[in-house]
């Protein structure tokens, strides 16, 4: 429609806080919506969110409930569509076709039907398990670790390093915190080192690639 500035009103203080970065998004389904909102915000010149108390949102609340049913004797004038599952899950799968988890899921499917596989593929399949619709990695000394996509991993690293935990530590400590939180992805150690190196470089004026230990006290 060509709109460049967007004003969003909601009676959910939680949603406003999550989008503005004041609250952590812990629910897996809400996290997928959060990533889509962050991506959509970048398409506008200005986006503002405003929290409206429920007492001042009664009219809109009644309008939203019209889709749920009708009083006896009223005519149904609203076309309804019932969603059996969130659409955001399907969109997420389409947006990330090269997700590393897709290869692991394919290996698990092949192992389930006893398809001939290479020894290295069997060992890889034995390290993972699917629970519900989520992929988890089996740990030796830890519980199951939820496998994250590249986008989800970036969000978790930012939360651990900059926001919720607010612990500006080294890459090994940062990786250990992420594992204790119950998450995993194949390049987590390299990604943590890259993130911290970039932070140190900005603070000290160093060039990426220079020895990191020289500037850590």
Describe what is shown at a glance.
This protein has 9 helices and 6 strands, in the order βααβααααβββααβα.
What does this structure look like?
Among the domains are: 1-59 and 82-95, 2-Layer Sandwich (Nucleotidyltransferase, domain 5); 148-217, no CATH class. Helix content is 46%, strand content 12%. The protein has 9 helices and 6 strands; from the N terminus they run βααβααααβββααβα. It has helices at 13-19, 28-41, 58-65, 87-95, 100-112, 119-126, 150-162, 171-181, 188-204; strands at 5-10, 46-51, 128-131, 134-137, 145-147, 183-184. The chain has a 4-stranded mixed beta sheet with strand order 3-4-5-6. A two-stranded parallel sheet has the order 1-2. β3 and β4 (134-137) form a beta hairpin. α5 (100-112) packs across α6 and α8 packs across α9 (188-204). The relative contact order is 0.08.
Write the layout of secondary structure elements.
Blueprint: E1 5-10, H1 13-19, H2 28-41, E2 46-51, H3 58-65, H4 87-95, H5 100-112, H6 119-126, E3 128-131, E4 134-137, E5 145-147, H7 150-162, H8 171-181, E6 183-184, H9 188-204
Parallel strand pairs: 1-2, 5-6
Antiparallel strand pairs: 3-4, 4-5
Helix pairs in contact: 5-6, 8-9
